[in-house]
Write a structure and sequence with these properties.
- The complex is a heterotrimer of chains A (206), B (648) and C (191).
- Chain A has 206 residues and is of the alpha+beta class.
- Helices cover 45% and strands 14% of the residues of chain A.
- Chain A contains five helices and four strands.
- A four-stranded antiparallel sheet of chain A has the order 1-2-4-3.
- In chain A, α1 packs parallel to α4.
- Chain B is α/β, with parallel strands linked by helices.
- Chain B folds into three domains: 288 residues, no CATH class; 116 residues, no CATH class; 67 residues, no CATH class.
- Chain B is 56% helix and 7% strand.
- Chain B contains 26 helices and eight strands.
- In chain B, strands 2-3-1-4-5-6 form a six-stranded mixed sheet, sandwiched between helices. In chain B, strands 7-8 form a two-stranded antiparallel sheet.
- In chain B, α19 packs antiparallel against α20 and α20 packs antiparallel against α21.
- The two termini of chain B are 33 Å apart.
- Chain C has 191 residues and is an alpha+beta fold.
- Chain C contains five helices and five strands; from the N terminus they run ββαααβββαα.
- In chain C, α4 runs antiparallel to α5.
- Chains in contact: A-C, B-C.
- At the B-C interface, α21 and α24 of B face α2 and α3 of C.
């Protein structure tokens, strides 16, 4: 349980360096040895087709598509967290900072073989951005003209994060703030912690 | 009523036949017709006057010329088969229509021409085969006729474009199918380009008359003295006429006396028979009686159509006189036609049958046989083909040219006789002798390019005509095309551009008539494209005709391996290109469409909107499938707009 | 000299077209170019069955380019045919490049056909086809096209349940990125 929020939480924390290295090694190792791989084209076409189909079925109501993707992601996230913990056997994070590192170095590494950069901590230290250098979901994707300002193509990721974090008692808002698909400079997902849930209340039933 | 050669060639007067089809080797018939034996017609003034009084035709020649063409078809009687049947005891019924005879050589074609002095006069005026301007004039005139004919009937016109559904049952107001009509236009053009003149060329003998009819009027009391004078004049033409060409031998023209009489007067036939015997005995000339008058109130007056093929000059004269007189009145029978009573027409055909089958053809056979035995054979046995070395030694066989006229070989020279042998063999459909003779002759003519060019050309033509089904790729490559190319090059050197054009247009058409279109069409295409590139003197409409023909070439090009599959599989669904993967690449439909489009563009430049419409109609399907038909900013879009604003 | 490039899909529908190279087409030529390309499809489909000749320059005369094809169809009968076959293939897409396939009055047409039957064609205003450069151009555009197909928003076929636009095969490529990339490739390879 992350109770010591007062402990040193600086964006660049040399004290945590060994810990971060450990997490990175763990992520790399799990990716290399314990994960079944799938063809990248197959993967991104599968996801892309789902998005395209949703866009067609909702006739360009992209807000709705975003919501649907988020919901799909959420349903994935609440399951994937169990798988993730089983593979890594990581203990509970004691800080939100550590949570961010686990998400970046282990979770994304294991499931998508990428390591988004953690950046843009806010002053209250309860919000950070995941900055994606590449995005296997969006490979080769080009948004239809009308969707550019509205659709968050990879919104499923937000849902996954939200669902997974919720399962470890972290109630977070997760949302895209920018996407290269829309012509932005980078692809950023903001994760903001609302509150730490108490153990006894099952997720999603309050 | 059967669809005949004449219907096709005069399709404008038979628009009801516009949905018929013609056999692919129609060109061979046209060529046969174009080189058919020429019969000149001379007549006494009394006869001409009498004919004018009775039938409003100015001379015996002008009357006879209406009966030229495929005489075995009796095309002037086509519409009256049943009547004719009863009057001649079913004899004509058995005549098969020349168009559908399997062997094109079975049909006998003849051409009638003006008296020899007139022919020779025009010969000196101009050397070319045809005059591009007249051809162009005729073509535009013909096209404007089509435009009017397809427009005067509003029912036909309203629906001409696009919604043409061939599967629907025939009904009133059905759109006029234009495919056959367009083909007919081309073949009209082709016929004129190949044989648009009866002018006599020194280098080939097709237009030199084979027979000369001398017609007199027995009913007006003309008798033996008149015949004798006329025959004497004819026999001595070379002396009477100044500048009588050295290359014509009057003795090779069979004189034939036609005794025109009135069948209503029974004594006249007896007079004729008497006269015949006397002529034969004293003048050694054959003669036939011809009942040119026969009072029969039952016999309906039959309007006669223009002959299928006549010289361009005559056609131009005919059309220009009619267009000025006719004014707006241009129905299918828009021009004033000559008309004869049915029984007279029947008499004419019967006389012609006798003339041709019993006189003309045997005469030609006799002559060719004689020349073959006395000139061709000896050369062969001595030289075994082409040993030039020996030929030079035995210089007798290669004749010195006539000193007075160094340009031409005289009629008695070996060269001239061999050429005649070859030409006549071709006329008689003996393509083998023709080919062998041309081939042998071409070796002798190396130093006379004027003669050589034509000889090479017809050598190739005789091959194409004679071996239609067994022409192989190898034969085309090693024998036919070298001949044509040499001929074209030689014509070119001589600056005889109209002959150069004829050579290519002729061979292209004959290649198209070959059975294996996959093999042969590329050659047709090559020559047509050469015409477009090298013959700028051809008029604009004539050039578009060639573009259209190019499209036809591509259209007919189908690999034999898929031809049967394509024809059986053509359901509406599979009409879309690209669906038949096995047929991919084995047709040239898209090329055809493209050239049709180019033609449309060029027709538009000439203001021939009907033609543009037809072209656009034909390419609509293929370009609609590929989304190019309606696309803005492209050529079809522009043409469609222009057609709508300009036409009708 | 200007070039006119097009990608043609099933049913001869153009998927993409663009004017490349230097200089501009005359208006007269511009309205004709798509038809020139369309007319060459017959020849391409003929060539696709055949063993590629040693030298890709298959055409010799000045007209419609039919004549070379006649000689080749004989060779195809002997060789048995087959789709895009060649003994000289170095890479998978080597056979796809057909070189100069056709010409029309001073214009040359080069072509490239994929194993799925997609055809890439170009009208060369200069009448000259530089094989090495053309081959690279086509191969890169082909790659680019494969990537475009991976875009889930690009309709690469009809609709599975038949509710699509009614046409079969890929939709026209309207992507501006594709366009600019093709132009970039052209700048590199076509002069």
């Amino acid at each position: 349980m992350p109770q010591s929020r007062s402990s040193s939480l600086s964006s660049s924390n040399p004290a945590n360096a060994p810990q971060v290295r450990h997490l990175k090694a763990l992520g790399d190792d799990t990716w290399k040895n314990k994960v079944e791989k799938v063809n990248a084209e197959f993967f991104h076409l599968t996801y892309g087709t789902i998005v395209a189909q949703l866009c067609e079925e909702y006739a360009g109501d992209y807000a709705r598509v975003n919501g649907e993707l988020f919901q799909i992601g959420y349903n994935l996230g609440v399951r994937l967290i169990e798988d993730f913990l089983a593979r890594t056997a990581l203990p509970r994070c004691d800080t939100f900072l550590k949570t961010s590192e686990v998400v970046s170095k282990c979770a994304f590494k294991i499931f998508l073989n990428l390591t988004p950069e953690v950046a843009h901590w806010n002053a209250a230290r309860d919000s950070f951005d995941l900055v994606f250098g590449e995005n296997p979901l969006a490979e080769h994707v080009e948004l239809p003209p009308g969707a550019s300002g509205q659709l968050w193509f990879s919104n499923v990721l937000c849902g996954v994060l939200r669902g997974a974090l919720e399962m470890v008692q972290l109630d977070c808002d997760v949302e895209f703030v920018s996407d290269t698909l829309r012509g932005d400079m980078s692809t950023d997902i903001r994760v903001k912690l609302n509150k730490v849930l108490r153990d006894e209340i099952p997720a999603g039933e309050d | 009523m059967a669809f005949s050669y004449e219907h096709y060639m005069n399709l404008l007067s038979h628009l009801e036949c516009a949905s018929e089809t013609v056999p692919p080797d129609i060109a061979r018939r046209i060529v046969s017709h174009a080189v058919a034996p020429v019969i000149t017609v001379t007549s006494s003034l009394a006869l001409d006057d009498h004919i004018m009084e009775s039938y409003k035709v100015q001379s015996a020649y002008l009357l006879f010329r209406l009966f030229g063409g495929c005489i075995s078809d009796r095309d002037q009687l086509m519409e009256h088969y049943t009547l004719d049947d009863s009057s001649t005891g079913g004899r004509t019924r058995k005549r098969s229509n020349s168009l559908f005879q399997r062997d094109a050589t079975q049909s006998q074609f003849i051409r009638f021409a003006q008296p020899l002095p007139d022919l020779l006069r025009s010969y000196t005026e101009q050397q070319g085969l045809f005059d591009n301007d007249s051809l162009e004039w005729y073509l535009t005139h013909y096209l404007s006729w089509i435009q009017k004919l397809t427009a005067t009937d509003p029912e036909k016109v309203e629906q001409l474009p696009d919604e043409l559904t061939p599967s629907s049952p025939p009904q009133r107001g059905k759109p006029l199918p234009h495919k056959l009509l367009r083909n007919a236009v081309y073949h009209n053009f082709f016929a004129l380009a190949v044989s648009s003149t009866t002018r006599i060329s020194p280098f080939e003998t097709f237009n030199v008359p084979v027979m000369n009819l001398i017609a007199i009027d027995v009913s007006r009391g003309q008798d033996y003295e008149v015949v004798r004078d006329l025959v004497t004049t004819f026999k001595n033409l070379n002396k009477f006429l100044e500048d009588f060409p050295v290359f014509i031998n009057v003795n090779d023209i069979l004189p034939m006396i036609v005794l025109c009489y009135d069948a209503a007067d029974e004594t006249q036939l007896a007079t004729c028979e008497q006269l015949q015997r006397k002529i034969k005995k004293c003048l050694f000339v054959d003669s036939i009686p011809l009942a040119l008058w026969d009072e029969d109130p039952e016999s309906p007056l039959v309007p006669l159509h223009e002959p299928i093929m006549s010289s361009l000059d005559e056609i131009v004269k005919f059309y220009s006189s009619n267009s000025s007189a006719g004014g707006d009145e241009v129905g299918t029978d828009g021009h004033s036609r000559a008309a004869l009573p049915l029984n007279i027409i029947t008499h004419m055909y019967q006389a012609l049958d006798v003339l041709v089958d019993e006189m003309l053809i045997p005469f030609m056979h006799r002559k060719t046989k004689y020349w073959e035995e006395n000139i061709l054979q000896p050369r062969k046995s001595i030289f075994h083909g082409s040993n030039n070395f020996f030929k030079k030694f035995i210089g007798k066989t290669t004749t010195q040219r006539d000193p007075s006229d160094t340009q031409f070989f005289p009629a008695s020279s070996t060269e001239c006789l061999l050429r005649k042998l070859a030409d006549w063999s071709l006329m008689l459909s003996d393509f083998k002798t023709a080919y062998l003779t041309y081939d042998s002759l071409s070796n002798d003519l190396q130093n006379s390019p004027n003669y050589l060019a034509s000889c090479l050309e017809w050598c190739a033509v005789s091959l194409l005509l004679g071996a239609q089904n067994i022409v192989t790729v190898k034969m085309i490559k090693t024998e036919i095309t070298p001949l044509i190319e040499r001929a074209v090059a030689t014509y070119r050197q001589q600056g005889r551009s109209s002959y150069e054009t004829r050579c290519m247009i002729l061979s292209a058409e004959l290649f198209l008539a070959l059975r294996d279109t996959w093999t042969s069409t590329p050659y047709a295409i090559r020559y047509l494209e050469t015409i477009l590139r090298d013959c700028p003197q051809l008029g604009a409409c004539s050039q578009v005709m060639i573009w259209e023909r190019l499209s036809d070439c591509y259209q007919s090009r189908t690999d034999p391996r898929v031809a049967s599959a394509l024809s059986t599989n053509t359901s509406p669904g599979s009409a879309q290109p690209g669906n038949e993967i096995l047929a991919q690449g084995f047709t040239r439909k898209r090329k055809a469409a493209f050239f049709r489009l180019i033609a449309a563009k060029k027709w538009a430049e000439q203001g021939q909107w009907r033609q543009v419409q037809w072209c656009l109609h034909d390419i609509k399907d293929i370009y609609t499938a590929s989304a190019l038909y309606d696309k803005k900013g492209l050529l079809i879009d522009r043409l469609n707009t222009e057609v709508q604003s300009f036409s009708m | 000299m200007p070039e006119y490039f097009a990608i043609v899909g099933p049913g001869d529908r153009p998927l993409y077209e663009s004017e490349l190279g230097r200089g501009a087409w005359t208006p007269e030529q511009r309205e004709l170019n798509p038809f020139v390309l369309h007319s060459s499809l017959d020849v391409i489909e003929d060539l696709q069955w055949q063993l590629l000749p040693e030298n890709s320059d298959t055409v010799s005369n000045t007209g419609g380019g039919e004549f070379g094809g006649a000689a080749q169809s004989g060779a195809a009968q002997g060789g048995g045919g087959g789709f895009l076959r060649s003994h000289r293939a170095k890479t998978e897409t080597d056979n796809c490049y057909l070189g100069r396939v056709d010409h029309f009055y001073g214009l040359a047409v080069s072509a490239y056909t994929t194993y799925s039957g997609l055809k890439l064609l170009m009208v060369h205003g200069s009448g000259i086809v530089d094989d090495a450069n053309c081959r690279s151009f086509y191969q890169e555009v082909h790659e680019l096209y494969v990537k475009t197909l991976m875009n889930p928003f690009y309709s690469a076929g009809g609709s599975a349940n038949g509710s699509g636009s009614g046409t079969i095969g890929p939709a026209p490529i309207t992507s501006r990125a594709f366009d600019s990339r093709v132009k970039a490739i052209a700048r590199r390879h076509l002069r």
